[in-house]
Structure formats: structure tokens, C-alpha cells
From TrEMBL:
SUPFAM superfamilies: MFS general substrate transporter (SSF103473). It is a multi-pass membrane protein. It comes from freshwater metagenome. Signal peptide: none annotated. The chain crosses the membrane at residues 21-45, 57-74, 86-107, 113-131, 152-173, 179-198, 235-255, 261-285, 297-326, 375-400. Pfam families: MFS_3. It is found in: Cell membrane. Keywords: Cell membrane, Membrane, Transmembrane, Transmembrane helix, Transport. This is Unannotated protein. One of its GO terms (cellular component) is plasma membrane. Its main location: membrane.
Length: 425
């Protein structure tokens, strides 16, 4: 018994960080996140400086997004056939190559758009290849009862990078954009070294029935999701909640015309969800939810919709900021339950393909959600679209138990067991 346990005190570090392999993976994830967020600041500034075109900024995002749906299925199948550690390592090496390429473009003057588009596409390819194994690896290196905590810490790494990475990148940009790219390369190299130090996780033997090849093997993840209500219900609920309820894309409109807070206030508003998510993630990592996971998922999705209604109706900056922070916190709880449920409900031999499909759902909800928010605001007005989207999200949370009763009945996530893999013709 440790001294902290003998004294009745809770250990400072979450138990999952006592596992060397996971700690190294977590270091790699947070290094990758910081490198990417720092790079995004420099790329955005330099691309806008070429022709002062917001459209070209959108093209960079499109170039990064296109590889995700194109490569999701083959990347998922690859993650189920070869070493996930090596695939994740390959994606980090690809991202390091991108930042080195950006450094060379910056040194040459950064006067043309096409190198940024090409490197943006390469970034999307690396992310598409690395996300399925990166999502699957935590479940391979920690005990089953710590998977929820592992997923929460993974989200903490992302949120910490989202909050502080752009600020650090902006500060370094005032010295030189070359410094940003060099520092980002260094961060990703740290992730590469950490991944190299991870012991190769043991793979579960492929189950009988998972010997299909060709197109059937490629879409096996899709078929498994369709047959598993817990997974289908959780990822589609997240898709529609973000699609209808997301309002952060309209924050500039609220900051300028409703709250009258200017660019500094806009920056604070945009950081609100990440701050709330970070705090919730820390809480989950130390005290993972134990019971009523299905009901909690539906409750926090409904709470997310309520936060959007409050944000849409608010004329107070601080109330709006509080609504966004709470929305980030409850969304973190939702993501943790969904991510853990998907991982534990999927057999290891299909996990890469299932997580690849989930990656497309998440990407689609974020990208299409921003588009839907803008289109609805243009058609019905900003406040009306946000409030209506929040009410729709609350409605989804209310009807989802009828559509996916198995999801609502989940009690302990640790009690979920994957269905056997069946041959998919």
C-alpha cells in the first residue's frame, strides 16, 4: 500500500498514468496536438497574407478534410491488419515532414498558395492514417477498467493543445514564422521518440469469421456498427447534436452585433468550450463515471442543447461565456461516454475499421455543423437558428431512448462486451 493510500488521500496522478506505455502515448498525443495547433496559426496568417482572401483559408481546411472520407475505410482496415503502433508512428513522421515542408516554404517567402494546399492535403492524409490506430491503442495498453480514464486523458491532451497551442504559436510568430514551424517540428519529434519507446502491444488473435478479404473486409466496420445499437446510437446522436446544436461558428456574429465585445471578446468566447471541456476532462480522468452511462449520455446531450438555447438568447457576455463553457464541459462527458462505449463494444480485430468510420462521423459533424449554422443563420436569422438548433438537440435527447433503447439501458461502461465477429459477405 502506498503512502497516499495509507493516509486515505487520492493519488495526484490518475491511475492510468502509472502505465508506462499509456504515458508515452499520451505524451505523443499532446506533442502532436501542440505542434498542429501552433502550425495552424502560422499557416492561417501566411495564407491570408498572400491574397487577403478568406476563401483561400477555407480551401486549406478543405484540403485537410478531403483525405479523411477518402482514406477512412482503407486506413481502418490497415489498422486492423498491421502494427497500430507503427501506423501511428508513420502518421507522426508524416506530420513532421509537413512541418519541415512548411518551414522550407516559409524560408522561400510563402508567396504562393499551392504549396500550402499540397501540404494541407498531406496533413489530412497523415491524420486519416494515424487516427484509427491512435484511437485504438489506449485500449490495448491499459486494463479494461481504466479505458474511460484513458479516453478522458486523451481528450485533455487535445483540449490543452487547443487552448494554449494557438497562443504559443502566435507568440512565436511575432519572432518569425520560421520559429513556429521549427518549434512545431520539435514537438512532433518528441511524439515520435515517445512512440518509439512504446512496447508493441499484444494483439488479440483474429476471430473466426474475420477472414474475409476485399470489399467485404473494407466495409466490415460499417456493417458491425449497423448491427450494434450501442455504437450506432451513440455516434449518430453525437453527429446530429453537433450538426444542429453547434453554434461556435457563429460566435463572430454574436461578438460583433449582439454582445458588442470586439475581437478580444470573440477570442475569449471561442476559448470557452475548450476551457469547460478541459476542466470536465480532468474531473473524469480522476473520477470516471461509474453508473447509468446511457442515461447520463442522453442527459448531457440535452444539457448541451439547453446551453445553446441560453447562448442564443443571451445579451450578456458573461452569461454567454458561461453557457459556452458549460456546453464544452457536458460535451466532454458526452464524448467520453461515446468514445469509451465504441471502444469496449468493438472487438479488437475490428476496432481500427470501426474507429475509422467514427472518425468520418466526427469530421462530418464538425464541418457540416459549421456550414449548417451559417446557412440557417442566413435563412432564419442568427438568434433563431441557434435557439432552434438547441431545441432540436434537446428533442433528439428525448426521443433517442425510443430509437435506441439499448443505448439508454447502459449502466456501467465496463460491463459492455463486444459481440463476436461474424463473416460479412
Amino acid at each position: 500500500m502506498s503512502a497516499s493510500e495509507a493516509s486515505g488521500r487520492r493519488p495526484i496522478l490518475p491511475p492510468v498514468l502509472r502505465h508506462r506505455n499509456y504515458t508515452l502515448l499520451w505524451l505523443a498525443m499532446i506533442s502532436e496536438g501542440f505542434g498542429g495547433q501552433m502550425t495552424a496559426v502560422a499557416v492561417g496568417w501566411q495564407v491570408y497574407s498572400i491574397h487577403h482572401s478568406p476563401f483561400e483559408l477555407g480551401l486549406i481546411g478543405l484540403a485537410e478534410f478531403i483525405p479523411l472520407p477518402l482514406l477512412a475505410l482503407p486506413a481502418g482496415q490497415l489498422a486492423d491488419r498491421v502494427s497500430r503502433r507503427l501506423l501511428f508512428l508513420a502518421s507522426l513522421i508524416g506530420l513532421a515532414g509537413v512541418t519541415v515542408g512548411l518551414l522550407l516554404v516559409s524560408i522561400s517567402g510563402a508567396h504562393e498558395l499551392w504549396p500550402f494546399l499540397a501540404l494541407g492535403f498531406a496533413t489530412g492524409v497523415s491524420i486519416a492514417i494515424g487516427t484509427p490506430p491512435g484511437r485504438a491503442l489506449p485500449a490495448m495498453v491499459v486494463p479494461f477498467d481504466l479505458i474511460s480514464s484513458a479516453m478522458a486523458l486523451r481528450s485533455i491532451a487535445f483540449q490543452a493543445a487547443t487552448i494554449t497551442g494557438p497562443a504559443l504559436g502566435g507568440f512565436l510568430f511575432t519572432i518569425s514564422p520560421n520559429v513556429v514551424y521549427a518549434a512545431a517540428t520539435g514537438m512532433i519529434v518528441i511524439g515520435i521518440v515517445a512512440t518509439l519507446m512504446v512496447s508493441e502491444p499484444a494483439r488479440v488473435e483474429r476471430a473466426e469469421g474475420d477472414d474475409v478479404r476485399g470489399f467485404a473486409a473494407l466495409v466490415a466496420g460499417i456493417h458491425f456498427i449497423r448491427k450494434t445499437p450501442v455504437i450506432m446510437g451513440s455516434i449518430t446522436l453525437d453527429l446530429f447534436a453537433v450538426l444542429f446544436g453547434g453554434a461556435v461558428a457563429l460566435a463572430p456574429v454574436f461578438a460583433r452585433t449582439i454582445l458588442h465585445v470586439g475581437p478580444i471578446g470573440l477570442g475569449i468566447l471561442r476559448s470557452g468550450p475548450a476551457i469547460g471541456a478541459l476542466l470536465a476532462g480532468i474531473w473524469i480522468a480522476r473520477r470516471p463515471p461509474q453508473r447509468h452511462a446511457g442515461r447520463n449520455l442522453l442527459a448531457v446531450v440535452g444539457a448541451f442543447g439547453l446551453c445553446m438555447v441560453v447562448f442564443g438568447l443571451s445579451h450578456s457576455f458573461w452569461l454567454s461565456l458561461l453557457a459556452l463553457a458549460v456546453s464544452g464541459a457536458v460535451d466532454m462527458v458526452s464524448m467520453n461516454i461515446r468514445a469509451t462505449a465504441v471502444v469496449v463494444a468493438t472487438p479488437d480485430e475490428l476496432r481500427g475499421r470501426v474507429l475509422a468510420v467514427e472518425m468520418v462521423f466526427i469530421s462530418a459533424s464538425n464541418e457540416l455543423g459549421a456550414f449548417e449554422s451559417g446557412a440557417a443563420a442566413a435563412a432564419f436569422g442568427t438568434v433563431t437558428s441557434v435557439v432552434a438548433g438547441g431545441l432540436l438537440t434537446i428533442g433528439l435527447a428525448a426521443v433517442w431512448p425510443k430509437v435506441f433503447p439499448a443505448l439508454a439501458r447502459i449502466d456501467r461502461l465496463e460491463d459492455i462486451r463486444p459481440k463476436p465477429v461474424e463473416a460479412v459477405a
